[in-house]
Design goal:
Distance between the termini: 44 Å
Strand order of the largest sheet: 1-2
Strand content: 5-15%
CATH architecture of one domain: Orthogonal Bundle
Largest sheet: 2 strands, antiparallel
CATH class of one domain: Mainly Alpha
Mean pLDDT: 75
Order of helices and strands: EHEHHHHHHHHHEEHHEE
CATH topology of one domain: Hypothetical protein af1432
Helix content: 40-55%
Low-confidence stretches: 1-67
Number of strands: 6
Shape: globular
Number of helices: 12
Length: about 270
């Protein structure tokens, strides 16, 4: 059991909600989504009040029974739950994510996880688990918007917030294509509460389909596939410039030349 006083933990970026520092972020031991059925469990004698579970405000323990992430997130007061990889995979299934987008999302999660490990090695507390979850979920709505149009970042953020009740994850999904506040771009790298969002913005710019590439190669591909109007090409180039800024600012702060790293067996490693 882990108890957190949310009011002592500060505020999440822009959300006005309690934020649990990454070193204390709880992870729920649950099974994949939509396995738990309150009605069925009640029929089998399951008593929510008597069960081990999410009880007092800010308290997180295991239920000891099947529990979906979305249900648990609604019960968890004052903390942000971080979905496991299998929870994220269950969401892929729920929202019918195409196989190529699953491969891309896996690559983005691997890059974001590697960035978190590099930062942790330098004594900064960030959540690797949160970075992985954000990477796996950043394109959750991409399949839907390919088929029906719309903004996949906005729709995906709404779905992630609905499913996890975690505004930090939703924040990363919402802004993974482009950070809209250029004057606050430096804060994105220097404020650790923004680490996950920054990592996903950058990681998404290094994974082309399922391959780890340079930012320049990634954007050459985007220009070729999507640059059908001058405005679209302008937006793509602005996003490229932002990715390069993040890469350089990250390198300055942490002494890590990200452009000298590559993925090897799913791990971010320095090229010899």
């Amino acid at each position: 059991m882990a108890t957190h006083n949310a009011q002592q933990q500060g505020q999440s970026p822009g959300a006005g909600l309690p934020y649990i520092p990454s070193s204390q972020l709880p992870r729920l031991s649950s099974v994949p989504l939509e396995v738990f059925s309150p009605a069925r469990h009640l029929e089998e004698g399951w008593d929510p009040a008597a069960s081990k579970g999410l009880g007092q405000e800010g308290e997180v323990v295991n239920y000891g029974t099947m529990l979906p992430l979305a249900f648990a997130a609604k019960q968890a007061k004052g903390v942000f739950l971080v979905p496991r990889e299998e929870d994220c995979h269950a969401l892929w299934d729920k929202y019918h994510m195409l196989d190529n987008i699953r491969e891309h999302s896996t690559g983005v999660a691997q890059v974001a996880a590697g960035m978190a490990e590099l930062v942790q090695e330098r004594g900064v507390q960030v959540s690797r688990e949160m970075a992985v979850a954000a990477g796996l979920l950043h394109d959750l709505a991409k399949t839907y918007t390919i088929r029906h149009k719309g903004n996949h970042a906005q729709l995906g953020a709404g779905w992630v917030m609905q499913e996890t009740r975690n505004p930090l994850l939703a924040h990363a999904v919402l802004h993974h294509v482009h950070w809209p506040w250029e004057k606050k771009l430096e804060a994105l790298v220097n404020d650790d509460t923004h680490f996950v969002t920054m990592a996903i913005i950058y990681a998404d710019k290094r994974v082309m389909h399922h391959q780890f590439v340079s930012i320049e190669d990634r954007y050459a591909d985007l220009l070729e596939r999507y640059g059908i109007t001058e405005q679209i090409r302008k937006n793509i180039m602005a996003s490229l410039a932002q990715g390069k800024y993040i890469e350089q600012a990250f390198s300055r702060r942490f002494g890590v030349q990200l452009d000298e790293y590559t993925l090897d067996s799913g791990r971010l490693v320095h090229r010899a």
